[in-house]
Amino acid sequence: MSATARTSVSPVGGSFARLTGPLVILSLVALILLPSIWPSSYVINILILAFIFGILATGLNLIFGYTGLLSFGQIGFFGLGAYLYALLTMDAGLSPWFAMLLAGVGAGFVALLLGYPALRVSRASFVIVTLSFTLLAALLARNWVEVTRGPMGIPKLPAPSVDLPGLGEFSGHDPRVFYFIALGMAVVCIGVTYLLVNSPVGRVLRAVNLNEPLAASQGISPKKYQIAAFSIAGILSGVAGSLHVAHLGIVDPSIFDPYYSEMLLIIVIIGGPGSLWMVVISSFVFMVIPELLRMAPELRMVLFGFILVLAAMLFPTGVGGYLEDRKVALWRRSLRS
Amino acid sequence: MFRMTIAATMMLFAAHSAVAQDKIVIGLSTPLTGSVAALGQHENWGASLAVEEINDAGGINGRQLHIEAQDNQCNPTQGITSVENLLQNDPIAVMGALCSSVTLAVMPIMERAERPLMVGVATSPLITEQAGVGGNDWTFRINPSDSGLAVALGNYLTEMNTIKTIAFVGEDTDYGRGGHNALTEALKGKGIEIVSADFYKQGTPDFTTVLTRIKAAKPDAVALYATGVDELGFIRQYRGMNIESLLSGRVSLDELLPVIQAGALEGATSVYPYAVQLDTPENKAFVESFKTAYGELPNYQSFQGYESVRVLADALKRSKELTPAGLKQALKEADFASVTGGNIKFDDHNQAHNLALIVKVKDGVIVIETMSGT
Amino acid sequence: MEFFTQLVINGLMLGMVYALIAIGLSLIFGVLEIVNFAHGHFYMLGATILAALVTSAGIGFFPGLIVAALAVGMVGYIVYVVLLRHFREGEFDRGIILTIGIGMVLQNGVAYLFGSSSRIVDTPFSFVSWDVSGFFVDAQRAIAVMVGAVAIALLYGVLTFTRIGKAMRAFAQNREAAFIVGIRPAVIAGLAVAIGIALAGLAGAALAPVFAVHPAMGAPILFKVFAIIIIGGLGSLPGALVASLLIGVTESVVGGYSSVALQDAVAFILMIVVLLAFPAGLFGKGIRV
């Protein structure tokens, strides 16, 4: 079936798995301390983007890596969440936090509606239908001027603020505060996905991905699970989108830029579809690499193209998949000796 | 892997602090990749040419200028990152960001960093609204507003006395939408009616359908607000279909020279902030050296890049201290002779009012019909 | 009524252009089950090569057409031999990722080498138009349509009457059966990819004098053609042709009576409707997983 199918249960609970927990906690501590050690607004801005893309990439990873469905709709949900946030705060006067929640729910609901026609035929048509959804959403954002203000965009968006008892209120318009808001949201979103993929539901998703007819014969209804996963991925993208425009302070139709779709795909492919943590790390790496390549902007995109070609040819399961294979090889060797 | 990321970020940081201290850095955030890369490229060329000329003439009180351009892909996200990156090099000011949405996203950052932002191309009226007494005192804009240009065009078309109906076609960006709003406003009470308005997506190759509709409706004029590739494509198809309506709007006739020399577009009348044909010594010198340096004629974006740097350099020479705050004060007192022959003086919204040119095709050549303030 | 007829004529002409691109895309999908995301960029490559040949090398338009199509087809064949050949059946996602990568390299590579400014190609037919019983026909566009019609007719001939063409169709319908009758799959698939990509290059070359030529021209047309092959049924060549004409005419008529914005949305909306009513497309071969 899909080239991205990962083994559902690790053959060994080996050193990798045991180290994951401490490494995640260590990285988290480092990220919490970082702004006080290195207070560069440039670095903080890049890390905020990495948190947001970490959420977005985890969403695509859930639908592509675990369920095996390649979705180009994630940027559509990202933009939808962004616009919902903007309209709910600016026009409906809701609080930023509540708007962020509704942006996620709204995007998830649209994913639910889209999932049905998209999954009717084949994986190929799923790809094209989700792609078309993103294009249509962009068209709507540009042309439904009465609501979206069209290409002029909606500037001066509010940012959520944090009220700490005894310490006072911290405004999210300060990048250092927003850093912690984005970090917190990333921890929650990625944490929930971690729990989900390691739950019985996660195992069903992998089973459906590995062998859909077999899973169906076991009384599992694949479509239901696929649509549910697509919808959860939609929620994650919607939340990421609302977070993103709260940081930018403006939303306009360029939120649907195909560049994001390409970046997102590279992040998940190189990280390894189905490897939760590797994709998160990959989000950080691919927010930094374009910055390193700022000297040659035209060549940057050529290089990204080559990265995708090489990845598809040499290691379609990404770094995560490569590590998994190594693990299996080690396990086999240890059994032999 | 994670350690690698940190190491890479540190390297990046180190590389940036290595820029020579004695140069005065001006940042430029503009699209160098993506769908409007060609426009950003021209802005960068114009700016680099001005820097070269100023340095050859002795720089700013003996110190050399240095322009550092960063790609923003016409996207607010990349815009913010590019400006944060530029700010690492301690620029005295930043120019940009070509696209309105990017400019609006960048304005608060420049305000926080307390450095002037020099806007030369972005058209959204919101930029001027928010600048100066509007709240953001660090944003300055030298390109005339949409409404200034539209009023000039509206007045001219009214005086022509032959135009009663206009079909509007624009790209679905702030350029097209903003142009439509401004023109509608400018034509109020003048007896000219906009009978249809179409907004197409940037990069649309085929205009047959809307042109067929226009051909059948026979408006007196077509007002086109398009840029770059789309403008060229539209004009070629417009010409191919032998439409009799007068071509008007905000058309960069300069970039259509081959079509015009072939005898098409006779009578086309456009409002534009710049034209290669401008008969001032400064402009002739600019066009000449631009052609020598880059092998293409300058366009509106290259002109604004060139002019932005010159306005900044003029202010730097006058400013008492070479700091962003000193520069801001000097900009506020600017009274600079533009390449167009107009004057750059900023009002209380930090908006300058350069000339609006009415450009016309007469006997296969482009002539500047009138000039007016905006 | 006259206006309506003119719109339909425009639509059919536009549809033929879509068809040339869509048929190539559908052919590749039929044989390899790969959705070629680089297809639009091969269209751009064809246009770029023709522009270079006509404006810089001074070669005539018609010889230029043939050279451009052959050159792009050659690139397509190399892509097959070096990259696509190594894919196994069902590695559908890998194919998409690979072709997206190829597309990015093509688009940005051309931008890097030749700049992002647009190029104009003038031929003796530029700005010539014909009056066909009161209706307006642009000569250059009519030539593109005729080139498309000839190419499609040739392809039909090859697929129907030659041994290799029959093999191609057999291969698309049933891989195992094709093995049994002793057809070498690599030859068939390579040829199908080369032909499919050459058609995209030919479309680009034929349209270069009609539209402005620039590195980003591939993406918008590709997305539309995706919707077309879904409507026609993935892998079905007659479906691709009919759906192309259908979308061309619908777009033209909708755009003629409403707005450009709605014209842009027509293909996508129609696609969703068709998927709800006929999940396998109008000419679908049935459900694939």
Structure explained in plain terms:
The complex is a heterotrimer of chains A (337), B (374) and C (289). Mean pLDDT of chain A is 85; it is low at 1-14. In chain A, the strands form two sheets. Chain A has a two-stranded antiparallel sheet with strand order 1-4. A two-stranded antiparallel ribbon of chain A has the order 2-3. Chain A starts with 14 loop residues before the first helix and ends with a helix. Chain A has helices at residues 15-37, 41-66, 74-90, 96-118, 123-143, 145-148, 175-197, 200-210, 212-217, 222-248, 258-271, 276-292, 297-314, 318-336; strands at residues 154-155, 162-164, 168-170, 250-251. By secondary structure, chain A is mostly helical. Helices cover 44% and strands 19% of the residues of chain B. Chain B has 13 helices and 14 strands. Chain B has helices at residues 2-16, 37-56, 76-87, 100-113, 125-130, 146-160, 174-186, 208-217, 228-240, 257-261, 281-294, 300-318, 324-332, and strands at residues 24-30, 65-71, 93-96, 117-119, 139-141, 165-171, 193-200, 221-225, 246-249, 269-272, 336-337, 343-344, 356-362, 365-372. In chain B, the strands form four sheets. Chain B has a five-stranded parallel β-sheet, with helices on both faces. A four-stranded parallel β-sheet of chain B has the order 7-6-8-9, with helices on one face. In chain B, helix 2 runs parallel beside helix 12, helix 6 (146-160) packs across helix 7 (174-186) and helix 12 crosses helix 13 (324-332). Chain B is globular and about 65 Å long. The model of chain B is unreliable at 14-20 (pLDDT under 50). Chain C is an all-alpha fold. Chain C is 73% helix and 3% strand. A two-stranded antiparallel ribbon of chain C has the order 1-2. In chain C, strand 1 and strand 2 (135-138) form a beta hairpin. In chain C, helix 1 crosses helix 9 (218-232) and helix 1 runs antiparallel to helix 10. The longest helix of chain C has 31 residues, at 2-32. Chains in contact: A-B, A-C, B-C. Chains A and C meet through helix 5, helix 11 and helix 13 of A and helix 4, helix 9 and helix 11 of C. Chain A: It is found in: Cell membrane. Chain A: It comes from Aquamicrobium terrae. Chain A: Pfam families: BPD_transp_2. Chain A: The chain crosses the membrane at residues 16-38, 44-64, 69-88, 94-114, 126-145, 177-197, 227-251, 263-289, 301-323. Chain A: It is a multi-pass membrane protein.
